[in-house]
Amino acid sequence: MSIRRLWDRWFAPRPRLRVPLALVLVLALGAGGWQAYARFTDDGGPREWTKGPYGKAPVALGKTAPARPGEMVRRLNRTPLAVVGGLALYEDTTRDGTRLTARSVRTDRVHWQYGRDKEFPYDLVIGDELALLWWGGEGLTAVDLRTGEPRWHAGTPRTLDDGHHGLVTNLRVMDGTVLVASEEELWALSAADGKRRWRAAPPKGCERWSPTDAPFALREVYVVEAGGCPDDPALDDDPQTARMAQIGLDAGTGAVRWRFAHDARLAPYRPVDDATLVVAPADRDGGLSVTDVSGRRPGTRTLPFPDGERARGNTARTLVSQAYDDPGALRGYALDDGRRRWTHRPAKGTRLGEAVVAGGRVYVVEQPPQEKGRPAPAGPSRLLVLDAERGGLSYSISLPELDRGGSGEPQQLVPSLAGHGVIAVSWDEISRVAGPDVLVLTDAQP
Questions:
Q1: Buried b (16+ CB within 10 A) or exposed e, 14-45
Q2: SS3 of the chain
Q3: Residue 421 Cα distances to 27, 138, 313, 392, 441, angstroms
């Protein structure tokens, strides 16, 4: 009997049954849709699922880090993986599997949840539009940040694992491309559909792609790191550097455009503009290296840089650093001649925590001093915003007392998640485990 005949025979003459029937049909369709969306592997393996999205996507609070972070959006009970648009992203792992949750920054309401039962990602990277989860031999999943729905699934390069899952050395999404690499091979995938655009083996003279530094984009070039390059006469045979090289790959084809030695231990290269890189050695006297890759061959010049300082970030003209022997002091060095352009010291009776550079500004918390081996004392703290080029104070705001979670380890208040209209501040232990109280600020309203 057809549905039309069933309706005419049983429900059309009985109006009271129409509403209950409609509810049953809605529930049935919803359950059917959920079952249709829940996906299983061919061998009955882990299930992938999405709940939501619940309503319209939240509106972004801004595009860059706030210039005047004077309005408290809310206090969170843990630091998000990232804040993208108006969403805060969190990862939870239990015995049952992995769950990625997107919450509204303004309201803390869940916007969507994505999960995979009985499986745990080896790597998770958040971009501006996608969350990338790598499942080892199960490949890569790209989750749409607006809906929580998987946009695509793709394979990844083979890894050297001796029968076990190896680790993807680098995973990054930028400029509409996903770069995913093992030691043997680097793939460029389309961020729109996951299709492979090209693949590249380590360049001639190098044994592997290196996991030390994440790739980044310059003009028409992706910059990646290779290791084990004994046949390159330009690279020193230094066991501390593993004879590394910085490689510029053509963004369209993956062909090598240029290469040069990377001999600054533990320090990543940073883009200055779309054709210039800078690196400051982290643990030895070697000078500040500025490399121009605009020509056929990279040209590197070495500038003076004091030993014992660590770079926190840079603009197109200035590198910002903090010294170990002068706790908390911030300094800016010119990238054209290496001279110190400015110094910012904490107010009397205070110290500076670790700084973050974003959008041409330096964000740092001025806080009470701390004795070595003792917990951070309670007291007033201020978030400072400095001009990264000149070092001048452009804005400051008093911070409320933040819960340290009862930890007895040395701690400092640090800014993080600088971008998309927000700056987050939380306690950060030496062990790099953030405290349970996170303050999220956005630009003060006029």
A1: eeeeeeeeeeeeeeeeeeeeeeeeeeeeeeee
A2: CCHHHHHHHHHCCCHHHHHHHHHHHHHHHHHHHHHHHCEECCCCCCEEEEECCCCCCCCCCCCCCCCCCCEEEEEECCCCCEEECCEEEEEEEECCEEEEEEEECCCCCEEEEEEEECCCCCEEEECCCEEEEECHHHCEEEEECCCCCEEEEECCCCCCCCCCCCCCCEEEEECCEEEEECCCCEEEEECCCCCEEEEECCCCCCCEECCCCCCEEECCEEEEEEECCCCCCCCCCCCCCCCEEEEEEECCCCCEEEEEEECCCCCCCEEEECCEEEECCCCCCCCEEEEECCCCCCEEEEECCCCCEEEEEECCCEEEEEECCCCCCEEEEECCCCCEEEEECCCCCCEECCCEEECCEEEEEEECCCCCCCCCCCCCEEEEEEECCCCCEEEEEEECCCCCCCCCCCEEEEEEEEECCEEEEEEEECCCCEEEEEEEEECCCC
A3: 40, 35, 19, 22, 8
| CB 435 within 8 Å of CB 411 | yes
Query: Over its length of 446 residues, how does the chain's per-residue pLDDT go in tens digits?
Result: 555 555 555 555 555 655 555 555 445 444 444 433 444 343 455 589 999 999 999 999 999 999 999 999 989 888 899 999 999 999 998 888 899 999 999 999 999 999 999 888 888 999 999 999 998 878 999 999 999 999 999 999 876 554 444 556 688 999 899 999 888 899 999 999 999 999 999 998 898 998 777 899 999 999 999 988 865 444 444 544 457 899 999 999 999 999 998 866 668 899 999 999 999 876 555 689 999 999 889 999 999 888 888 899 999 999 999 987 666 799 999 999 999 999 999 998 899 999 999 999 999 999 998 766 666 566 789 999 999 999 999 999 999 988 877 656 668 899 988 999 999 999 886 555 566 789 999 998 76
Which pTM does this prediction carry? 0.84
Q: Which residue has the tokens 């049909």?
A: 25
How far does CA 374 lie from the centroid of its chain? 31
Asked if residues 307 and 285 have their Cβ atoms less than 8 Å apart, the reply is yes
Q: Check if the beta carbon of residue 229 is closer than 8 Å to that of residue 205.
A: yes
